[in-house]
Amino acid sequence: MNKLEIIPLGGIGEFGMNCMGIRCGDEMIVVDAGMGFPEETPYGVDISIPNFDFLEEYRDDLTALVLTHGHEDHIGALSYILRKFNLPVYASRFTHALAEKRLEEFDMLGEVLLHRVEANDVVEIGQFTVEFIHASHSLVDCFSLAIRTPIGTIIHTGDYKIDDTVENLRVATDNLDQLTDSLKQRPWSLIRIKQPKDREVPH
Q1: CATH ID of 4-192, from 3.30.70.870, 3.30.428.10, 3.60.15.10, 3.40.50.2300
Q2: In this model, does residue 90 exceed pLDDT 50?
Q3: Smallest Cα–Cα separation from 135: which of 108, 107, 174?
Q4: I want to staple 34 with a disulfide (CB 3.0 to 4.6 A). Which of 18, 22, 66, 163 is the partner?
Q5: What integer pLDDT is reported at residue 53 of this predicted model?
Q6: In this model, does residue 195 exceed pLDDT 60?
Q7: Beta strands at 114-116 and 89-91: parallel, antiparallel or unpaired
Q8: Across 184-195, average pLDDT
């Protein structure tokens, strides 16, 4: 029987280094590859990245890297992980452009397969079916993810922001409705809730 594993490499209980492996059977996708910004920086150290060496034992299982949005704490370590594991990358139009720029800086642009996706796209990656859901945030082209597996559905909210403007509240409500619909498509679901960023409460 398949086993579902959720393996955070960073971003849990800290700011930055958002990176998570999701493994089902003998296949694994990675969500985000962010850098961190140490509060107390040792001399000569400006950033920190997840320990991608941990993924070495899963090298044969790795199938894709999925990016939720283009902030540095989600894509800043892109070149580091792709230098070790040449994975196809799925990202929105804007995040795709940022990824291209970063890879170009490291002379890696021609070596990586980049797939551009849009909100409401559904992509099959091996055993995983990934639905890209528009998320309201402080950057354009951000996604939440509904990741369907033979075992259940994972909702990865990514970072999101809900402020008190009428339009943003409407979009946020539509996004939550879509997440709910995604959950209803499976009799059981696994949910990952992420703390919203820069939340503003109407008053």
Answers
A1: 3.60.15.10
A2: yes
A3: 174
A4: 18
A5: 93
A6: no
A7: parallel
A8: 49
